[in-house]
């Protein structure tokens, strides 16, 4: 995803799929469509992480990237410079100094599909970690994270860009071979709780099988994700009751649907597409019943009211990315940008209820670090459901993790969350945050990432620091 200020982290952003959303879909028309039963698996298999062909780097200019990619090229990329960029001390930087890139990755085994990405270089050490960020949806754009969470800048109402002092920036490994030895981390939120475990398994498998360039894969982090639907949907009534969203009578009524949901999910795991579609509608009846009782509550942050289709106003982002000068700078031609695609959302519903926790234990056994973090006020991917699947996961360190004490996660001497950790597994409940932790608690999120990638997440306290010191010491 993206990131800001002088934080010396390299970020390779894939704009694919974003915020877990609550869209209404006509089931009858969906069944008539052709849903590949293994879409997610095909996507992962088709993603050649270490392309052997040469890449095509476009040297400046406003020529659309799509028209620059010759046949057989895996990647086409160009350095970019956003128009209307203003901010503290950053004015006057040349594009070469900023190291901002935009590009397309050609997806194999598809009908000429391409994946757009941003890549923001570190402004400090060449040894800084490489971090990829994926948002959820399914079917939304990771630009939501770039401009509203942990990207290098945010969008002002006058369509100018303002530097984000808590951004996560400051690659492909064939395009940028100088990064191949850097530590590599996969991060994201929401429905990326499905993508990230699959992506992590594929990278680790490629390394073990000596496929292409070795990637120095160290760990993955999921924020307020959907990973194990059976346990997470069961937690909905409990979370809603504990937070006063529903009454005891409503809780008793809604909870009767939980066993039916659990059975539907089991059938999804064994019986393919139709059962997975059925489980989506059966189980989301639980969530929809809670929302009927909740009224206009924002299910991404129960402290707020829901406004618009995504419960937040992200309209500035769509306006900005559809400005002609911005599209020319990115080299995307006349393609219109949309925050979320209903077409992609619907096509991925067959994958919704699949359990992606299944492949995680093998990664932990091989020493791959995993951080699950969750803002405490998110309903749709709440901390309670995430905590339950993390604690229930069977691996060699399960008993030790379960019995580990909770410790305060402190930032500037104040408790910013509650942490539990053992070996490669960590779970962090973040205070005063909803679904989008880097947006609600940007400084705590940056501190979390810094400590985690440095192996210091369990440090009980952190030295009080201003933003400049925080990014400088990373």
TrEMBL record:
<feature type="signal peptide">
    <location>
        <begin position="1"/>
        <end position="23"/>
    </location>
</feature>
<dbReference type="Pfam" id="PF00450">
    <property type="entry name" value="Peptidase_S10"/>
</dbReference>
<dbReference type="InterPro" id="IPR029058">
    <property type="entry name" value="AB_hydrolase_fold"/>
</dbReference>
<dbReference type="GO" id="GO:0005576">
    <property type="term" value="C:extracellular region"/>
</dbReference>
<dbReference type="InterPro" id="IPR018202">
    <property type="entry name" value="Ser_caboxypep_ser_AS"/>
</dbReference>
<dbReference type="GO" id="GO:0006508">
    <property type="term" value="P:proteolysis"/>
</dbReference>
<keyword id="KW-0325">Glycoprotein</keyword>
<comment type="similarity">
    <text>Belongs to the peptidase S10 family.</text>
</comment>
<dbReference type="InterPro" id="IPR001563">
    <property type="entry name" value="Peptidase_S10"/>
</dbReference>
<keyword id="KW-0732">Signal</keyword>
<protein>
    <recommendedName>
        <fullName>Carboxypeptidase</fullName>
        <ecNumber>3.4.16.-</ecNumber>
    </recommendedName>
</protein>
<keyword id="KW-0964">Secreted</keyword>
<dbReference type="GO" id="GO:0005773">
    <property type="term" value="C:vacuole"/>
</dbReference>
<dbReference type="GO" id="GO:0004185">
    <property type="term" value="F:serine-type carboxypeptidase activity"/>
</dbReference>
<keyword id="KW-0121">Carboxypeptidase</keyword>
<dbReference type="InterPro" id="IPR033124">
    <property type="entry name" value="Ser_caboxypep_his_AS"/>
</dbReference>
<keyword id="KW-0378">Hydrolase</keyword>
<keyword id="KW-0645">Protease</keyword>
């Amino acid at each position: 995803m993206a990131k800001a200020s002088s934080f010396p982290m390299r970020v390779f952003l894939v704009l694919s799929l974003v915020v877990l959303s609550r869209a209404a879909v006509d089931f009858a028309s969906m069944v008539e469509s052709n849903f590949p039963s293994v879409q997610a698996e095909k996507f992962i298999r088709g993603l050649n992480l270490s392309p052997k062909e040469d890449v095509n780097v476009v040297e400046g200019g406003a020529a659309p990237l799509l028209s620059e990619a010759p046949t057989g090229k895996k990647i086409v990329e160009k350095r970019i410079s956003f128009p209307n960029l203003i901010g503290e001390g950053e004015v006057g930087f040349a594009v070469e100094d900023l190291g901002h890139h935009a590009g397309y990755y050609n997806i194999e085994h598809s009908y000429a599909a391409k994946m757009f990405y941003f890549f923001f270089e570190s402004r400090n050490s060449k040894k800084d970690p490489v971090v990829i960020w994926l948002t959820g949806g399914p079917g939304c754009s990771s630009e939501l994270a770039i401009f509203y969470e942990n990207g290098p800048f945010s969008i002002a109402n006058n369509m100018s860009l303002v530097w984000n002092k808590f951004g996560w920036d400051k690659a492909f490994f064939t395009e940028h071979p100088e990064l191949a030895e850097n530590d590599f981390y996969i991060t994201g939120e929401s429905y990326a709780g499905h993508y990230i475990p699959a992506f992590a398994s594929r990278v680790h498998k490629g390394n073990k099988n000596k496929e292409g360039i070795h990637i120095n894969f160290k760990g993955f982090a999921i924020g307020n994700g959907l990973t194990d639907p059976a346990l997470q949907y069961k937690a909905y009534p409990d979370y809603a009751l504990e937070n006063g969203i529903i009454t005891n009578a409503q809780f008793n009524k809604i909870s009767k649907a939980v066993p039916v949901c659990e059975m539907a999910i089991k059938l999804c795991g064994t019986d393919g597409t139709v059962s997975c579609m059925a489980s989506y509608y059966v189980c989301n009846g639980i969530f929809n019943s809670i929302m009927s009782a909740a009224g206009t509550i924002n299910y991404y942050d129960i402290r707020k009211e829901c406004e618009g289709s995504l419960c937040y106003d992200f309209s500035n982002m769509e306006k900005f990315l559809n400005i002609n000068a911005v599209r020319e700078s990115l080299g995307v031609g006349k393609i219109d940008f949309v925050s979320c695609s209903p077409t992609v959302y619907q096509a991925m519903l067959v994958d919704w209820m699949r359990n992606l926790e299944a492949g995680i234990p093998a990664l932990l056994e091989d020493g791959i670090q995993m951080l699950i973090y969750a803002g405490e006020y998110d309903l749709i991917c709440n901390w309670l459901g995430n905590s339950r699947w993390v604690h229930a996961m069977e691996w060699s360190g399960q008993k030790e993790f379960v019995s580990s004490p909770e410790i305060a996660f402190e930032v500037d001497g104040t408790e910013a969350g509650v942490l539990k950790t053992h070996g490669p597994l960590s779970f962090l409940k973040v205070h005063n945050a909803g679904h989008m932790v880097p947006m609600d608690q940007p400084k705590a999120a940056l501190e979390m990432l810094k400590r985690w990638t440095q192996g210091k997440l369990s440090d009980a306290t952190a030295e009080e620091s201003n933003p400049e010191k925080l990014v400088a010491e990373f």
